[in-house]
Amino acid sequence: SAQSKANTMYNLGGCLHQQQKYDEAEQMLRQALEMYTTVNASAQSKANTMYNLGGCLHQQQKYDEAEQMLRQALEMYTTVNASAQSKANTFSWLMGCLIRQGKYKETEEEFLKFSTLEEL
């Protein structure tokens, strides 16, 4: 099924990321995300893919793209009431992207907003 193929692409993207083959991982994760969207997969699956894709983009110093992907993942994680760990990991990558782009004021604002949440 298309869902199984998307899951396989996601897992392969994760393996490529672990091997530091970020360009290949990026392409595989983009395909998985597209397929997840096409088959109307769970928000959790899409958020996980966005998170991993954001990490790949960050590793390739594509900080603007990574920032956008991680913002989407964080928003989706909040919507599906994901674990605090998932949200914190995504937030950490996002802060790195903002800092690398010299967006220090925005980093501070995001940090204060995030740190005041009662529940992650």
Summarize the structure.
This protein is mostly helical and 120 residues long. It has six helices and no strands. The chain has helices spanning 2-18, 22-38, 43-59, 63-79, 84-100, 104-115.
Alpha-beta content class: mainly alpha
Order of helices and strands: HHHHHH
Radius of gyration over C-alpha positions, nearest whole angstrom:
14 Å
Largest sheet: none
User: How large is the count of helical segments?
Assistant: 6
Helix content: over 70%
Give the CA-CA distance, first to last residue: 34 Å
Beta-strand residue fraction: under 5%
- What is the arithmetic mean of pLDDT? 92
How many β-strand stretches? Answer: 0
Name the shape in a single word.
globular
Residue runs with pLDDT of under 50 for 5 or more positions: none
Using brief descriptors, characterize the structure shown:
6 helices; globular; 0% strand; 120 residues; mainly alpha
Write up what this structure looks like.
This protein is mainly alpha-helical and 120 residues long. 81% of the residues lie in helices and 0% in strands. The chain contains 6 helices and no strands. It has helices at 2-18, 22-38, 43-59, 63-79, 84-100, 104-115. α4 (63-79) packs antiparallel against α5. It is globular, with a radius of gyration of 14 Å. The N and C termini lie far apart (34 Å).
Write the SSE topology.
Blueprint: H1 2-18, H2 22-38, H3 43-59, H4 63-79, H5 84-100, H6 104-115
